[in-house]
Amino acid sequence: MAMPTDNSLFEQVRNVVTEPEWLLAKPIIEEIQALKREKNAVVLAHNYQHPLIYHGVADLRGDSLGLAREAADADADVIVMCGVHFMAETAKLLNPDRTVLLPDYDAGCSLADAITADDVQALKKRHPGVPVVTYVNTSAAVKAASDVCCTSSNAVTIVEALNSEKVLFVPDRHLAKYVERNSEVEILTWEGGCVVHEEFQSADIDALRADYPGIDVIAHPECTKEVQDSADAVGSTSQLIDWVEEHRPEQVAMITECTMSDNVAAHFPKIAFKQPCSICPYMRRITLEKIRDCLETMDDPVEIDPRIVPGARRAVRRMLEYSRVDS
Fold it and tell me: Which residue among 24, 40, 150, 288 is buried most deeply as judged by most CB within 10 Å?
């Protein structure tokens, strides 16, 4: 994919990146672009990545589902995942013969840490015959113990596609209840939560509406029910972007990781983005310097225990199959 020229790239991000930031980052961005060509590498960036990564070096961008699809279709020898650990594992599951790099192995996820494969096996024993839907924000081992994965954008579709009156949905309890409210399926869940989205309170929404009369508020389903009920629309990161694209509000608050609003704002300079801010500490561990360094050294490529690969890959591929049918 051809990258923008230096001037056009800065013009694209100048409303969310200062000129001094850009001048400091420009030499590193150029190094990364050269390394990508040398190594035949592609950079995938989640919507929560810093604008200098998202707009400056990423070839492919999106939410968890979008990146899973892009990883499966990537035409490169090396995949650099600018996201968190479970995303890099997913990319490796779908690209077993390619080198997958994660710039920082401490880029984890509170949801992935909330449940283990043993926990899933214990749930299955307590609820025999009930299918297990695992949110993609989990380890490969947890995916291997599941029937199918999902993301926030396709969770309802996948739960309904199982044609079961009852489903085990792990680990995010807020997304699980969102699915239950939007389907005819009884959901059994786990007490997991996202450190970013659980920070938001309905009082934050009330304050926004008081400070910015007429503002549109759109929220991620990992937020609490109270926050979801206070919002004008609820959806995954990709669905929130689509909502902004379709409605073009004068002012909007995206109740999700606030770096994402900077990335979206770069595409919609005429829309005023106002929101309480919660930053993912794990996503922020990925930096331009770490992307450059991992491409230079090619150290510590992502590996997955071969004993769990078949089950985990099956769960991820089933997710993609259901999603393609729905799209």
Answer: 150
For the stretch 17-51, what's the b/e string if a residue is b when 16 or more beta carbons lie within 10 angstroms of its beta carbon?
A: beeebbeebbebbebbeebbeebebbbbbbbbbbb
* Rounded average pLDDT over 175-204: 96
Whether the CB-CB separation of 154 and 179 falls below 8 Å is answered with no
- The answer to whether residue 142 is domain-embedded is no
Question: Which candidate, 125, 148, 105, places its Cα nearest to that of 290?
Answer: 105
pLDDT digits 0-9 by tens, 272-321: 999 888 999 999 999 999 999 999 999 999 999 999 999 999 999 999 88
Angle 129-171-181 from CA coordinates, rounded to 5°: 80
Condensed to tens digits (0 to 9), the pLDDT of residues 114-153 reads 999 999 999 999 999 999 999 999 999 999 999 999 999 9
- Provide the 8-state DSSP code for 301: -
95 and 37 inside one domain: yes
Examine the domain organization and report whether 288 and 235 are in the same domain.
Answer: no
